[in-house]
Write a structure and sequence with these properties.
The complex is a heterodimer of chains A (786) and B (240).
Chain A (H helix, E strand, L loop, with lengths): L3 H12 L1 H39 L4 E9 L3 H5 L4 E7 L1 E7 L7 E8 L10 E5 L9 E5 H7 L6 E6 L2 E12 L18 E7 H7 L5 E9 L5 H12 L7 E3 L4 H42 L1 H9 L4 H38 L14 H27 L3 H5 L11 H4 L8 H12 L1 H39 L4 E9 L2 H7 L4 E16 L2 E10 L8 E2 L5 E2 L6 E4 H7 L6 E6 L6 E10 L7 E4 H8 L5 E8 L4 H8 L5 E6 H55 L4 H37 L13 H27 L3 H6 L3
Chain B lengths: L8 E14 L2 E14 L3 E5 L6 H8 L7 E6 L9 H11 E4 L11 H9 L8 H7 L15 H13 L5 E5 L7 H17 L3 E6 L10 E6 L2 E7 L12
Parallel strand pairs in B: 3-7, 3-8, 5-6, 6-7
Antiparallel strand pairs in B: 1-2, 1-4, 8-9
Helix pairs in contact in B: 3-4, 3-5, 4-5, 5-6
The chains are: A alpha+beta (786), B alpha/beta (240).
Chain lengths: 786, 240
């Protein structure tokens, strides 16, 4: 048996359906966003952690030149090491039929039984069966990008000899969840990771009885730093480059950055959605309760107690919020699935399913319900506590006064219509402020959610147009003498060639150390430059180090301080050098030195391991074909191809996120504008209909009414720009990524897009309300008091 | 007081009917009303609630159209006009006075009048309209600062400021006490006399009928009687 109060509830809901739906949608956006980002965050974290566990992902990684297997006894005695594994890793050039650009590969030796650390997950084909065979396993991303299947062959330059290798199987590796040669851009089309029988690989590179790479797992209580120090001591005589931790491992770093990004986005944006939803609910409720003041008094007079009346309104809110929650969960699941699927284009896990943990749903639904309930109780407490007799009398008539502008003496030029608008806003300053704030909020969401496009463009411009304006970058298998520059310059089609040295070092300041590479740039280098965050070129000081601020912070150094440099290759010199200049750079923890100064530091004479080229486009293919045959080139990177594949993936993702956020922000804007319009229409219908009776046309009355909304949009949008900037700055500040700085760049196009979207949402809401103004009942107005 | 012309009918209504549908029921509010309104007269429409007097006033004011029949103000066929033309008609020719004043609370007395004079063709200044209703001193007060009677006088000033052809007053004293009500009626009578504005007052208060030139009694959607007052009563003498 449905009680009469519940029947009233049903009818009130039906009457309020437009408002109820918009509120439920805003709640749904908040909950959907929260669930989507958090579940994606959780799914990524779980997929990564599970993969690491099943693959026995190492804690430490060490590269060296070559060490004999005999030293494994010494390594085994280092306290804190639970398990270790030696291997051979070689970077090679590769070739596939029909691919003009040079491809790079990293060949890694595979223990016979895929045991130990870094074990692979076979996705297709089979393990390498025959010892010493020319078969390889290929990482799945490259295989997919290039359409490779088991049985296909690859041409690989093995120690200068071209060799055909057969694909036995396709695998996943925890070390290469994200595979890149180091630039941070997705590199799947150009970079392959291959695993080969250990004996065969050792034979090809004269590494029998030795190794050049070491993986370590630590005991639970071990001190990472202590083990690193001990390992470095053992490996130093063998060309050790210094052991690195997971946090320096590139795939781990990129996956973790992405997880971090999800965490930040998942916290900030949905909180705003929920806050806005609660605000609208609150305003609508205040209005409902105020309008039903006499009904509430009558209910009380009839003997209903305060509790059942409060409960009645709580139910009204609960129905709306609950609908929003159900919709939000569905939206969150769909969005989370989509985002998870999107990540599978970048990250490869053996098991990567989208999963929503119950706490995420419970927390977001609880927050929405709790906040709504609080708002309800607040809204109706004042009315419920009135004695019935007093509540039955209509509230005092609205008192107006001249608006601030008029009190300042600026009224003579305004028309009565403008005065009506301004006084109405001034009479309910809190509500007007909230409406303006809500509008500003939706603009801010759009600005802070879509500025990524500007940031990425800026980043790409700094990194690839200004810092590295060359067209092709070559890296060499080892540092080469000065003659390499003239050799490279003579290659077909080369217009300009430059060569540099990147020197692996350990920097030490006080007790702080950091493994880094110092780039040696010759005076006048044009294809490799140091560019600051404001896109200015930073001159390389003739003596001393040029260090970016991120690295300086890591080592706690300021310009003028001296740091110890331990060179980790060649003669392994140890010298104290002054930090001449510290500058702000977008990416990495980098140090630069004048090329001649770096050569003196390395004490090897001029040596180069990187070359940059600009090329005559007409002869590009001829050049690329030649590069593929050069035995001492480990990788040839064609910048344009890399950028192209980056742009196409990012563009798709940015488009999706922009679309989702636009929909969300528009929902909020409509929710705010439509609801405040409906509420003030309900309050002023009588007044507006009176004006119609007096002979004002529909258009004139609509202008009077909607003018108020227009004014609030006009105030809310610029405020939204400011808030959006602040919010973007907050997101940037909260994203703790050591390796780069998100440039806080917001272009006019982003502001324009946000502003126009919200204006469109406002116009849409206005049109819906306008329809209602057109249908005001003029006859009824004459007979009823408001 | 000059006697209004009996020959010049500025409004002619013929066989006016109005049928509403409320839910499943048809309500016959007007069942065939014939009436004329003469230039300059003060006409009182008298009748109990449900008699059809409000419906008739709505048709006279161009707020509503008859279901059948003819309604014409001079050359304006408002019985057949669309919504936009009726709005235009109200704007140019009709001054409304409502039972609940219907002032805009966010505008002062003067601004409430100015709201209408701004869109009228040849209005009188707002100050003059307010002076005529005796509110020159309280022009810059907001409705919430005025008494009921004062608010109703502002409404009358607003109605006459556009120099309308007809002043339509719907229960103008309905929400007022006795003394204030009389003051408001006197203002209406003065406007009728001084400006020559035709005035139609609808009321259920039979006493008010004494101030009219003619009294039309409506009952059950039909005109029950038409009386012509040979002698119009002084409002001061009215008692109810």
């Amino acid at each position: 048996m449905v009680s009469m109060l519940d029947r009233k509830l049903g009818r009130d809901l039906w009457r309020l359906r437009g408002q109820a739906i918009t509120i439920a949608l805003v709640v749904a956006c908040g909950i959907g966003g929260f669930i989507a980002t958090h579940s994606t965050h959780d799914s990524l974290t779980r997929a990564r952690d599970r993969f690491y566990e099943s693959a026995h992902f190492p804690h430490l990684f060490a590269d060296l030149k070559r060490a004999p297997d005999a030293i494994t006894h010494t390594i085994g005695r280092i306290a804190g090491i639970a398990q270790f594994q030696t291997r051979v890793v070689q970077d090679v050039q590769m070739d596939l039929p029909g691919v003009i650009q040079p491809l790079s590969g990293r060949i890694i030796s595979l223990p016979p039984d895929n045991s130990g650390m870094g074990r692979l997950t076979l996705r297709k084909g089979q393990w390498i069966l025959r010892e010493g065979s020319d078969q390889v396993l290929v990482n799945e991303r490259f295989a997919q990008a290039r359409g490779l299947e088991p049985g296909d062959t690859l041409q690989v330059l093995l120690n200068g000899k071209r060799q055909a290798l057969t694909v036995a199987g396709i695998v996943l590796s925890a070390e290469y969840i994200y595979a890149t040669r180091g630039g941070g851009l997705p590199d799947d089309e150009w970079f392959a990771v291959l695993w080969m029988d250990a004996k065969r690989l050792a034979a090809a590179f004269n590494m029998e009885g030795g190794f050049n790479s070491l993986l370590v797992r630590l005991e639970p209580a071990a001190s990472e730093a202590a083990v690193v120090r001990a390992l470095d001591r053992v490996l130093e005589p063998y060309g050790g480059r210094g052991a690195s931790t997971r946090s320096e491992q590139i795939s781990h770093k990129i996956v973790s950055q992405e997880i971090e990004q999800q965490r930040v986005n998942g916290t900030i944006l949905p909180s705003i959605f929920l806050a806005v939803a609660v605000f609208i609910l609150n305003v609508v409720l205040h209005r409902q309760v105020a309008a039903q003041r006499e009904q509430i008094a009558a209910l009380k007079a009839l003997g209903y107690d305060d509790r059942s009346i409060v409960l009645h309104y709580l139910k009204l809110v609960a129905v709306i919020v609950f609908a929003g929650i159900v919709l939000g969960i569905a939206l969150g699941q769909w969005l989370g699935h989509y985002m998870t699927r999107m990540y599978t284009a970048f990250f490869h896990f053996p098991q990567f399913r989208h999963q929503t943990l119950p706490w995420v749903i419970v927390a977001s639904a609880g927050a929405a319900l709790g906040a709504a309930a609080l708002g309800t109780v607040q809204a109706i407490r004042r009315v419920v506590t009135l004695p019935p007799a007093q509540a039955m009398r209509p509230p005092a008539p609205p008192a107006y006064r001249p608006a601030l502008l008029e009190r300042m003496g600026l009224s003579h030029w305004t028309t009565p219509a403008v005065r009506m608008i301004v006084r109405n806003i001034e009479r309910r300053p809190v509500r007007a402020a909230f409406t303006v704030l809500g509008i500003a909020g939706s603009v801010a969401i759009l600005v802070s959610g879509t500025f990524w496009r500007d940031a990425v463009d800026y980043f790409m411009d700094v990194q690839f147009q200004r810092a590295q304006p060359g067209m092709i970058y070559l890296s060499f298998v080892e540092p080469l003498g000065p003659e390499v520059l003239s050799e490279v310059a003579r290659l077909p089609g080369v217009v300009r060639a430059e060569a540099y040295r990147s020197l692996a070092v350990r920097l030490r300041h006080g007790h702080l150390t950091y493994r880094a590479a110092i780039s040696g740039l010759p005076a006048g280098a044009r294809l490799q430059r140091a560019i600051d965050v404001d896109r200015g070129e930073q001159a390389i000081p003739p003596a001393g180090l040029l260090m970016n601020a991120r690295l300086a912070r890591k080592l706690d150094v300021r310009a003028g301080d001296r740091v110890w440099i331990e060179v980790l290759e060649g003669k392994r010199a140890v010298r104290q050098v002054q930090v001449s200049v510290v500058f702000d750079e977008l990416v990495g923890l980098n140090a630069y030195m004048d090329a001649a100064a770096l050569d003196r530091l390395a004490a090897e004479g001029p040596r180069y391991n990187i070359a940059a080229l600009t090329v005559d486009a007409a002869r590009r293919d001829e050049l690329l074909a030649r590069i593929k045959t050069l035995p001492r080139v480990s990788a040839g990177i064609v910048k344009a191809s890399l950028l192209e594949s980056f742009r196409s993936t990012t563009a798709r993702n940015l488009l999706f996120f922009t679309g989702v956020l636009t929909l969300f922000a528009a929902t909020i804007a409509v929710g705010i504008v439509y609801n405040s319009a409906r509420i003030s229409l309900a309050e002023r219908a009588w007044e507006l209909a009176s004006l119609r009776v007096l002979g004002l046309t529909r258009g004139e009355v609509s202008a009077l009414f909607l003018g108020e909304l227009a004014l609030m949009l006009a105030a809310g949008i610029p405020l939204g720009f400011l808030l959006g900037y602040a919010l973007a700055a907050l997101i940037v500040a909260l994203t703790h990524v050591e390796a780069f700085k998100i440039p806080l760049v917001i272009l006019p196009r982003t502001y324009a897009y946000a502003g126009l979207t919200v204006v469109a949402a406002g116009v849409l809401s206005a049109l819906i309300v306008r329809h209602r103004i057109d249908r005001l009942d003029l006859v009824a107005v004459l007979k009823t008091r408001e | 007081m000059s006697a209004p012309s009996r020959d010049e009918a500025i409004f002619v209504g013929r066989k006016l009917t109005k049928v509403y549908r409320t839910g499943e029921q048809l309500v016959h509010a007007l069942r065939g009303v014939d009436l004329e309104i003469y230039r300059g007269e003060l006409l009182v429409l008298l009748g109990p609630s449900g008699s059809g007097k409000s419906t008739l006033l709505n048709i006279l004011g161009g707020l509503d159209v008859p279901s059948s029949g003819e309604a014409r103000w001079g050359e304006h066929d408002i019985g057949a006009a669309d919504e936009a033309r009726r709005t235009r008609f109200r704007r140019e020719h009709v001054g409304f006075v409502f039972q609940f004043y219907n002032l805009i609370p966010s505008l002062t007395a003067r601004e409430n009048v100015a709201l209408v004079t701004e869109i009228a063709a040849r209005p009188m200044p707002a100050q003059e309209a307010l002076r005529r209703v005796g509110l020159a001193e309280r022009m810059d007060h907001f409705p919430s600062q005025l008494s009921g009677g004062e608010q109703q006088r502002v409404a009358i000033a607003r109605a006459i400021a556009k120099r309308p052809e007809v002043l339509l007053c719907d229960e103008p004293t309905g929400a007022l006490d006795y003394e204030t009500g009389k003051l408001v009626l006197k203002v209406i009578a003065d406007v009728n006399a001084d400006l020559g504005t035709t005035a139609v007052v609808i009321t259920h208060n039979a006493v008010i009928a004494a101030m009219a030139n003619r009294v039309l009694r409506l009952a059950d959607g039909l005109i029950a009687s038409i009386e012509i007052n040979a002698e119009r009563a002084d409002i001061e003498t009215l008692r109810w």
